[in-house]
UniProtKB/TrEMBL annotation:
Residue ranges occupied by any Amidase domain in the UniProt entry: 27-456
Protein name in the entry: Amidase
Organism, scientific name: Brevibacterium pityocampae
Pfam families from the UniProt entry: Amidase
Family: Belongs to the amidase family.
Length: 475
């Protein structure tokens, strides 16, 4: 059996079934690992020790009575890390903000509820930036979360605690979310696969469940685990009328490298408008060569997006929706927010004051059409996940971000994720493409046609077999 902290979800379930491993033993190992390493990484904001231990004991008793053919819940006994943005009934729900100090969750978030109903055991909650509005993870309440590949760097955000925790071996599965790359960026910086579902696949909560950039997801260590857990959280939900039917069922066994033979895959190095770091470009080249060697046809295209269009559309969108919601939550007093949250609100609000939501929608339609036209005749699109190879920990990025091609007004412009929140029905999977000079992994995105989730997983599984995903250096 591999080291317990590097096991996949499916391997853990198999070990529980065969009784090689007890849910109690596994949970104990993970909580011990958190105690040993989280003083440095700081990915966990609390541990729900006693209720988790009771649930693990109950799961162990079920496994002890079951034979090989006994139907069991899909995730019975699997420890679950929960992004603090996702409510856990009875636990604090502060979103890392003093604005919500003392707030307690009345019920599980729908994604947490579905995973719990499938037998998963929420046992620890992971850090986020305040109101999940940054692509790094730090708050006055919880401190700075660090990347297990290089503690001087951030694991990304806003699901940075979840990404760092899975990469560090704290658990095999965590919840995540994504309105601007918040699942894919931590996946990229943590050497993990990270899947952004098409809008409507997974349920959210009011008011931002109606934000068509949004999705709630999972982070795991393997493509198969990602598919397995995603199947549990997708589908219509009575509390979210934006969810669609029927629930799409992903395969959880893949052909690996053989699956891409004959596929046509478009390749865009920079989407036409991003300043890509050399290590990121080299990672893309490595993936292209591997897929080509497996029999796929890789064709470089000129997508020719405009960074101004992407920024105007998305910043106005965030200004009209998320910034207004944050302003309401702090009673209009932005000084109650973290400095980076205040800057996010002010920056996006400026766009919203000069670009109406209707005008932003027109720009979104333009970007969507450019992506659709570029992908015509291809099975998928391959492009970097983040143009910048790493971001520093302990840096709130309040000023313009210096880049080789010139400064960026807002550091989010260094990530290549937002175009596919704009093209919100496209499934996207971030997968590792190598390791950069800082020790932080690099990553590519695999983009599918609207709702063509299976094609994305087929390519991702091929990359995983051809270029095995890295492990953090934590022992």
């Amino acid at each position: 059996m591999s080291e317990l902290h590097h096991m996949s979800v499916l391997d853990v379930i198999a070990a529980f079934r065969s009784r090689e491993l007890s849910p109690v033993e596994y949970l104990t190992h993970l909580t011990s690992r958190i105690a040993a390493h989280d003083g440095e990484i700081n990915a966990v904001m609390d541990v729900m020790d006693e209720p988790a231990r009771q649930a693990a004991q109950a799961a162990a008793e079920v496994y002890a009575r079951a034979d090989a053919d006994t139907p069991l819940p899909a995730l019975l006994g699997v420890p679950l890390l929960v992004k603090e943005q996702h409510n856990v009934a009875g636990c604090s729900a502060t979103r890392g903000s003093r604005v919500l100090a003392g707030q307690t969750a009345p019920a599980d978030h729908p994604v947490v509820a579905r995973l719990r109903e499938a037998g998963a055991i929420p046992f620890a909650r992971t850090t986020t930036p305040e109101f999940s509005c940054a692509t790094f993870t730090q708050t006055a309440a919880w401190g700075t979360t660090r990347n297990p590949f290089n503690p001087d760097c951030t694991p990304g955000g806003s699901s940075g605690g979840s990404g760092a925790a899975v990469a560090a071996g704290y658990g095999p599965l965590a919840t995540a979310s994504d309105i601007a790359g918040s699942t894919r960026i931590p996946a990229a910086f943590g050497g993990l696969p990270g899947f952004k579902t098409p809008y409507g696949r997974t349920p959210g909560v009011v008011p931002l469940n109606t934000d068509w950039y949004r999705g709630d997801h999972v982070l795991a260590r393997t493509v198969a685990d990602t598919a397995y857990a995603t199947n549990i959280i997708v589908g219509p939900h009575a509390g979210d009328h934006a969810t669609i039917a029927p629930a799409h069922v992903l395969p959880t066994a893949f052909a690996g490298a053989a699956g891409v033979a004959g596929m046509r895959i478009a390749v865009s190095r920079d989407l036409g408008c991003y300043d890509v770091d050399p290590e990121v470009a080299a990672g893309l080249d490595t993936v292209v060569a591997a897929l080509r060697g497996a029999g796929a046809e890789l064709v470089e295209i000129d997508l020719a997006l405009s960074l101004a269009d992407v920024t105007d559309a998305s910043s106005a969108h965030y200004g009209h929706l998320i910034a207004q919601n944050m302003t309401r939550m702090c009673g209009g007093d932005l000084d109650l927010l973290e400095p980076y949250s205040k800057r996010f609100v002010e920056y996006t609000r400026d766009f919203a004051e000069r670009i109406s939501l209707l005008e932003a929608a027109d720009l979104e339609t333009k970007v969507q059409a450019q992506i659709a036209d570029a992908m015509a005749g291809f099975d998928a699109l391959l492009t970097p996940t983040s143009a910048i190879g790493a971001l520093e920990a302990d840096n709130a990025y309040l000023e313009a971000l210096e880049r080789p091609a010139g400064p960026l007004d807002f550091y989010w412009q260094a990530h290549m994720t937002i175009p596919f929140n704009i093209a919100n029905r496209c499934p996207v999977m971030a997968v590792p493409s190598g390791i950069g000079p800082t020790g932080v992994p690099t990553s590519v995105q695999i983009v599918g046609h609207p709702f063509a989730d299976d094609s994305v997983f087929t390519v991702a599984a091929a990359v995983e077999e051809l270029l095995p995903f890295p492990r953090s250096p934590l022992m």
